[in-house]
## 1
Amino acid sequence: MRIISGQYKGRKIMAPKQLPVRPTTDMAKEALFNILNNSYYFDDISVLDLFSGTGNISYEFASRGTEEILAVDANFGCIKFINQTAESFEMPIKTIKSDVFKFLENSKQKHTLIFADPPYDFDVDAFSKIPELVFKNELLEDEGLLIIEHSKHTDLSHLQNYSHSKSYGGNMFSFFD
């Protein structure tokens, strides 16, 4: 995986093979950040990266100047890797090892952008819990956005606060506001 843009543009990051992850593809990541670049100043926002895995999305935000990034994942190996990588690049990424749903139930901190990249094999009920908890607990700032990455075979358009989706290859981003 590589960082697409910003201060660390072109840097390759090699995650350990044993991590249970499926990083967002470079093509999908670049398309997503092109969309976000038209709506946000990255140095003025707060980002919550759920199911953060390798930290791929967090690194991209940090490279573009975001100072407030919180990455949440249940896997100790993922959290350790993100911490090591963030430290080596001097990126302002904080991490929490937690089940994402428990974290969302207990969190009170608001964010400008919340990005969730859960396992693609989640059933629709599990996917639906993400926006349900985000909006019930008012975790988005005004003008904030929740983005859920999922397979093109999963339809989230029936969920409350759904706005639209964008498809890139086998990846899909659903936007909620």
## 2
Amino acid sequence: MLRGAFGPGRAAGGVRDAVRLLIGRRARLRWVHLILGGALAMPYFLVGSVIIGPATGSTDVFGSFPLQLASFGVGLPIAAVSSLFPTARPLEAANARWLCGVDTDRIASGPARTWGERVRTAAWFTLHLGIGGIIAGMSLALPPFAAVLIALPAFAWLGGTRLGLPEVFDHSWALALAPVAGVASLVALAGCAAGCGALLARWAPVLLGPTPEDRLAAAEARAAELAVRNRLARELHDSVGHALSAVGLQASAARRVLDADPEFVREALAAIEETTRRTVGELDAVLGVLREGDAPGTAPAPTLAADLDGLLRRTRAGGLRVTARVEADPEALPPLLSREAYRILQEGLSNALKHAGERVAVDVCVAAADGQLEITVENPLSGTPSSRPGGGHGLRGIADRVRLLGGTAAAGPTPDRTWRLHVNLPMKGPA
């Protein structure tokens, strides 16, 4: 067991993980991000050198490492001030997403709107340029130095003094250790770059992440998108689902009485033609919303005022004996209420078509009383119910519509073996 835990395979895997951590794709991208920060820091470094030179009386700032560090330190506050502009945040956020590997939802994409967002952006920009400038300087200096150390033994025959090297390299042990020191410096550079890149990736969501207001706006946008999708799903289910159920039952009934009742067959075929024509128009209207860049379809949404009689006629053509009592004026209903009530009644009749059986009597009542529009659909549970795989979304769609309108709905069997759907919709209110 110990051999399996500490064997050659596990050791090789650990080496691969270490190499991936230091020079893997993510580490390389973060290194590029740091080098980019160093490049962005150069103009501010030059401005800092212009300030440090006269302040110290030096005419050669670049010849002194302490003065270079001072120039770099003076340039960073200038960089922080310049990043207070709103457009700095989207640019830095894009770099953090693409190069640091930070998840998109953890980084804000819009410009800074408040002073708090601007200050955090300035802190991030300063951190990016500061660490990036250090890593960029190391990336310029260490590789040539490491290359000299690695190649030094190959030129040992020339002699240390003849190469202008320190006298310590006159010793054989120093020449033997020079390549090791060169490789170690490269590993140290890769480790520093990987560590600094991971540090920036960790701080990016804190300094560039969305504020609570941004998260709330994103949640509201997502909720609005889901609401549109749910509404389209309801429309497709209620219109296309009802039409397919009705057409299937009408065709089945017409086939069975093809020779015995030609008049009924003609009515069923006419109803099939009318149903499919209307459904194609409704489908085009719904799909037009989904097509990006296309104008929505022009087919009007059906309402009680426009198509109540047609809905009842097409349902009767499917074999149901529908008795309807309309005690409300469909023309007086608000358009939204009339449209949603039509869909609710359509779904109730569709359920009767699918589950009540053939030649079953269905009672429909549409009435207005006390500021409420009442819709009732009743049918006996006796008979041979029609069945189809899937389904089960109709009552949930009715419940969604009723809830959005601020009404109530109840559906289920009654003690006298009758299925009853009863809906109350306020004629004024949340709709």
## 3
Amino acid sequence: MRRYHMACIYPSDSQEPELLYPYILDNIKSFLEGETDWIANAANAAATIGFLLHDLNWVGFYLKRDNVLKLGPFWGKPAVTTIQIGNGVCGTSAETGKTINVKDVHQFPGHIACDLFSNSELVIPLFKGGQLLGVLDIDSPEIGRFNEVDQKYLEEIALYLAETIQWPQ
């Protein structure tokens, strides 16, 4: 039996990463349990992160298709549908295969602005079996929103999603 327990409250009154991030991952795991549809799983993962983390305005996936990144499931406002590999924060992360934590997107050369209220961005590449699947993109209206602790935990969540979701080939 699938268990649903996403709550409208945080696991504590504080935003302590040691409590919050495991709670987010547990919620994601409960949504993925027994579900094989990649769109449903990616959509619930984006919504869970967006809903439970503070000061975010966009969370979503850009997936590698025909050597470009195509918009996948997301939480937030409408977004750019195609990003060239190597362009913007997402394309650069895909090209380098490395997480990019941008404190102020207005200082990032070639930043692609989807939402004028976004000021910082964390992009994590997704790999499965050594192949680039795409990226997990997380935006915030707060400059410097993502620190090393956020990056560490969100990379763990991204790794879980990359390995667990049955992405299309």
## 4
Amino acid sequence: MSPRRAAALRDGDDRTLREHLITTAERMISEGGTAGLTVRGIAREAGVADGVLYNHFADKEELLALAFRAHVRSVEGALDPLPRAGSGTVAANLRAFVAYGLALHRAILPAMAGLIGRPEVLARFAAAGESGEDWRDRLLAYLRAERDLGRLAPDARVDEAAAMVVGVCHEAVLSLLFSGAEPERDVDGLVAALLDGIGP
């Protein structure tokens, strides 16, 4: 049996009610973050009764996790594409990965701030992702591919290099969150330090 269409959906809208609710919550997160976001508010914005959400999601946390995942995908869609292994120079490509990571983390910070005290939502957010689709996964795959191509040392510790880049981006977000200012970041210096350790 196909999913039931909702009266809240306009004619010509092929989404299911579940998709409509995720899209509505994602839009609300994009516009106002996650702090104070309620089931009642999402239902009202979606044009459905409050209890309808529980027909399509186990609980509010599942809906928030899926909506936050959709928000991250939306933010990523507006960023420049990441470089492919074997193209350009490794240094320029790493700079692009760092810039992408910093821009992504900056953009999702307002939504993330309201979830800091909601570990169950963040755990479901992590579980909702496909393996290899997150920025960190793509960075690690890129580094492994460059190692396989011989553009990095054969014994390059790419897992640790990826963790360093991710850590720099997380530090920037935490600094913004707690002090309201992002630290000065020497991206060229970071890339040089990485390549001194993993370059051929």
